[in-house]
Amino acid sequence: MNEFVLGVVSSLLATALAVAGGWAFSMRSRQWPVALLSRLTGLGVRRVLPRQRLASRELASELTRARWVRVLAGRGNELTRDGFTPVWEAAGRRLESVQVLLPDADLGPDSWLSRREEEMRRVDLGFSSGLLTEQVRINAAYVSEVARHREHVSLRFYNLPNVHRVIITDNVAYLTIYQQAEHGRNSPCIVARRPGLMYDYALLLFSTAWNHSRPA
Question: The pTM is what?
């Protein structure tokens, strides 16, 4: 009898430990300390995602509720995907403005874009010389065409270190910190709500780049 009771207790204990361990290491539970610390410090960080691509569905939902959108991208592929279609359709209607910053693809081998391309060529065998520049040009052409039909859409080019992606609405900011040995989609993404220090910092990054950019 004692052995039976001991076996039951052991099984219950093992189950409880497994559940507790799963909770402790789940992505959702790991975000609670971040959110709590952020609230206490005024940082405004909602969560930190290990990879930018995990934010795509949430970002698409946020874009449908935004009053304005500002984008600073290292390449701009997401601008041509389905998640941004509501943005282009709503610009000048529900959306007050859409401002897009892309790297300047016309500056040659001494540009920051070329330096980022060299980084990627060391970790991705499919990155031939000039590929990243060509991709930026294609995405810029797409946004330029949208801007021809939507006067509330603006495109400018920057020549600054290609080290992050910023997408900001009037409520939330998504700040991706690029890693040297990873594509942007695999780099960590900070989600920050307004008001908060991190949201203000993301907005400052965009505004500074915008003020030092050139028109398309």
Answer: 0.79
